[in-house]
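Risk register update: the risk of archive-format incompatibility is retired. Evidence:
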Amino acid sequence: MKKLLSPALLLFILISSLTACTNRLLNPETSDNPVANFDYLWGEYDRLYGAFEAKKLDWHALYNTYRPKVNEQTTDAGLYQTMTDLLAHLDDNHVYLRPTANTGLPWYSGGILGRTKTVDYDGTVVKRYLSDSRAFTNEMVCSKLPGQLGYILLKGFERDYSTYAQTMDSVLTYLQDTKGLIIELRENGGGEDRVAQYIANRFATERHLSFTARLRNGPQHTDFGPELRFYTEPAGHFQYTKPVVILTNRSSYSSAETFVLAMLQNKTVTQVGDTTGGALSDAIPRDLPNGWSFRVPIADVRDATGRNLEGIGIVPKVLVRNKPEELKAGRDRALETAMELLR
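Archived output:
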């Protein structure tokens, strides 16, 4: 019997194939001048970006606004300014522009994380609450909290999917005597969706749709491939079914957000903290003719109810924003709130 690919694996293969073409050869006749570079940047977003419709952006009108600012004599600094002014309209954490080192220009990061500094989380403060910490992978550290509670710091989702069944067996065995668990996502910028989904499935008791994704596949901003459906469902030898609180803030984005969507399908899970970053799409890097690099989000991702959360984020059930002065005093009020909910 032929084995069918899961939607998650299918998406992984599609993204891998696109990524493999990241450094696709430019036409030998492609010009390397300010106008050609601007047109190339605008054109790649026009061809690949997945959230124009959701964000109600008129990309062609923006071209008419910013293209006249560039000519053959435009300096690197001038081109950079015009490009970043254009990209700022996308307001997308996945978007970046990275000029070559010889220009002396800074790297640009889009979205809320590019224009603001995270001031509501400090990992050194969190450590004051923890005991018996153990690192199970480079990006997964588990600890104990007062009141017979467990804590998992998920810094990201590594790409070696094949190791996670054994890793989660070890993690959940270590935490089996806890009466509740906090999962820390406030320094999680994403990674591999398959890993995120597998970890979420180790907390599931039922099968529920968690999110959907469609990839851009045509010249129109509404051209997408078939819908890929992702499910939260029990996985592995055993699951952790006691209450869980997920801690999030604006630095929680990309597959950290699809992880939250998956986890929230479990009745035992509550989200606490601040709204997530609002950048759920997969993204691929590209190169300009002048050697600068940039990144384009390529999907339309929606939650189980059909909402596109790009530029919006996932709002927690319990909203708690730590103040800088609280952290300076050694207090993490969001973490304390999570602990109280589990007691």
